[in-house]
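Bumping my old thread because nobody answered last time. Still need a sequence for this structure:
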C-alpha cells in the first residue's frame, strides 16, 4: 500500500510513503533523482551488478536518475518513503554537493540527515511550510556530501560498450512491442546471446526488460501530466489496461490509478 504527493507549487517534485510485506519491485530505473528513507523493517537493495545491500531503519538512500535498482523486503514488514525530483532542478539547488552525491547509488546512516528528509516529507504531505522545501533539500544534499556512505553501488562505466549498444537501445525505445533478438543483435554486431549478456552488463536488464522499464518511465511521466490510463496504455502499446496494470505495478509497487491520483 502507499500514497503519493504532488503539488503545482513544486512541479519538479513528488513523493510517496509506502509499506510492503512481499517482493514488490522488478529491477527498474527512475527518470528523476530519488531520496529514499527506511522508516522500519529491513530491505534488500540490488544494483546493476546484482550486488546486494541490506537496508535498515534510519538509512537514507540516494539514487541518481537512470540507475537500475530494486528494493524488496528482507523479511516481514518494511516501511519507507521516497522523494523524487527532476535532476536538473536538484543540480541547481545543490551545486557541487548534488554532483558529489550523484556518483552512484549511495546509502547513508546518519540520524540528522534522516530526520531532515523525514521532516521535509512530513511537511509535503501536510502541505505545510512548502516555502522551506528547496532550502531543506539543498542542505540535506550538503549534509550527505559531507558524509562517507556506508555503501555505494557504482554504475558501469564502459563507454565502448555503451556506444556499441546505443543503436539497440534507441531502436527498443521507439518500439511499442518486443523486438526480434536476432535483429537487435545484428544492429550491435553481436550474437543474440552476446547481446543479452552485454545489455545486462551495461544496463542491469535484458533488452526486452530494459524496453519494458522505459515504457513504465514514460507512463509515469504521462500520468503525472494527467493523461488517462486508457490513453497511456494505448500510446505505449500495451495489449490492454489489464496488461498495463500488471507491468506498472511490478515496476512501481502501485497501480496506475493510485499513482495518477
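Sorry it took so long. Here it is:
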Amino acid at each position: 500500500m502507499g500514497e503519493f504527493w504532488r503539488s503545482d507549487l513544486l512541479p519538479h517534485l513528488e513523493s510517496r510513503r509506502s509499506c510492503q510485506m512481499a517482493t514488490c519491485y522488478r529491477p527498474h530505473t527512475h527518470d528523476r533523482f530519488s531520496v529514499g528513507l527506511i522508516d522500519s523493517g529491513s530491505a534488500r537493495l540490488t544494483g546493476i551488478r546484482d550486488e546486494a545491500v541490506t537496508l535498515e531503519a534510519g538509512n537514507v538512500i540516494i539514487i541518481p536518475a537512470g540507475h537500475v535498482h530494486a528494493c524488496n523486503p528482507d523479511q516481514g514488514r518494511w516501511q519507507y518513503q521516497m522523494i523524487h525530483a527532476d535532476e536538473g532542478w536538484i543540480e541547481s539547488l545543490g551545486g557541487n554537493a548534488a554532483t558529489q552525491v550523484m556518483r552512484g547509488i549511495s546509502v547513508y546512516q546518519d540520524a540528522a540527515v534522516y530526520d531532515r528528509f523525514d521532516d521535509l516529507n512530513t511537511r509535503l504531505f501536510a502541505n505545510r511550510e512548502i516555502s522551506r522545501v528547496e532550502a531543506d533539500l539543498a542542505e540535506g544534499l550538503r549534509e550527505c556530501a559531507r558524509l562517507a556512505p556506508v555503501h555505494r553501488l557504482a554504475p558501469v562505466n564502459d563507454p565502448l560498450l555503451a556506444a556499441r549498444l546505443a543503436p539497440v537501445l534507441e531502436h527498443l525505445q521507439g518500439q511499442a512491442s518486443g523486438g526480434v533478438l536476432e535483429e537487435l543483435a545484428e544492429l550491435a554486431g553481436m550474437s543474440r546471446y552476446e547481446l543479452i549478456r552485454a545489455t545486462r552488463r551495461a544496463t542491469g536488464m535484458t533488452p526486452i526488460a530494459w524496453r519494458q522499464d522505459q515504457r513504465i518511465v514514460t507512463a509515469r511521466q504521462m500520468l503525472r501530466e494527467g493523461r488517462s490510463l486508457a490513453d497511456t496504455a494505448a500510446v505505449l502499446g500495451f495489449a490492454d489496461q489489464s496488461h498495463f496494470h500488471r507491468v506498472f505495478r511490478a515496476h512501481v509497487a502501485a497501480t496506475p490509478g493510485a499513482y495518477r491520483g
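The first strand starts at residue 2 and ends at 6. Let me know if any region looks off to you.
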